[in-house]
Amino acid sequence: MSYQQRGFTLVELMVSLLLGVIISGAIIQVLVSNQVTSRLNQAMASAQEGGRFIVQRLRDDVLRAGLYDRNSPLLNRDVDTLAEESFIHQRTINLPGDFIQRPLLGASQGADGAADTLVISMAGSSDCRSLQHGYNGTERFHVVNEYFLEDGQLKCRGFDGRALRGLKAAQGHDGNAAYTLLDDVVDFQVQYGIAFTNAAEHELGRPAQYVTAEQLAALRGQGASAVTIRFAVLVKGDGQVNLPQAAQFKLLNEALQNAPDNGYYRDFGATVVLRNSKNWFGASQ
């Protein structure tokens, strides 16, 4: 008995190979697209999470700026509390020259588009790092918090304002080491809404204009004080994202800037009313 054997023709093999290549290419393209989408979603989620966190953290801290209750039973009274109250309310935003022991400490405007520095005063039981500077944990004292950008990290550093003013020796200050609040921060900008203390806008917490830190000293001497603080941060998302082109951003008064690379970036910001200082000035008039 004999059997007839037939195989595939060359044309059939070539068609089969071509279909296999097309199908494999489509599958690879889908996998690559899914990977790119996954990385982009991860970057967007991380930027969103980090941005929301830092805005809420800074808003909570700034809302307490100027807080001081001289009648509080928790207030430590080792110093003249009347003078301390006046100092904090008139210098809620601290500028270079406010403190004898650290004359360079103060809010500043970054040169040529560089990040700004924010420094605020209040009464509290701990600084922005949760350090108590030798107090017993429940006592209120003059807290000074500094916020600044360093090596892609938004950091904070806290001080005992009484020690900065030379009224006592610093204790338990941890060497004034800075703590990191958020990584992957590209820029940090701050503006101050000011109003003259004898104007109706001040009592309403309505700024007459927004200025930078370098303008505050002259305005303070003219009887103006800050009633709001406006801040903005630029955050980079995690992951290896390569967008078609670098994004552009404009933070507050700064010029339009390009992102450092083609990664995913997003800006966040908020405006906070300094209600403690506003209320104090309104009551003192």
UniProtKB/TrEMBL annotation:
Q: Which InterPro entries match?
A: N_methyl_site (IPR012902), PilW (IPR032092)
Q: Where are the transmembrane segments?
A: 7-32
> What PROSITE patterns has UniProt attached to this entry?
PROKAR_NTER_METHYL
Enumerate the UniProt keywords alphabetically. Answer: Membrane, Transmembrane, Transmembrane helix
Q: What is the lineage of its organism?
A: Bacteria, Pseudomonadati, Pseudomonadota, Gammaproteobacteria, Alteromonadales
> What protein am I looking at?
PilW family protein
In terms of superkingdom, the source organism counts as Bacteria
Pfam families recorded: N_methyl, PilW
Q: From which organism does this entry originate?
A: Pseudobowmanella zhangzhouensis
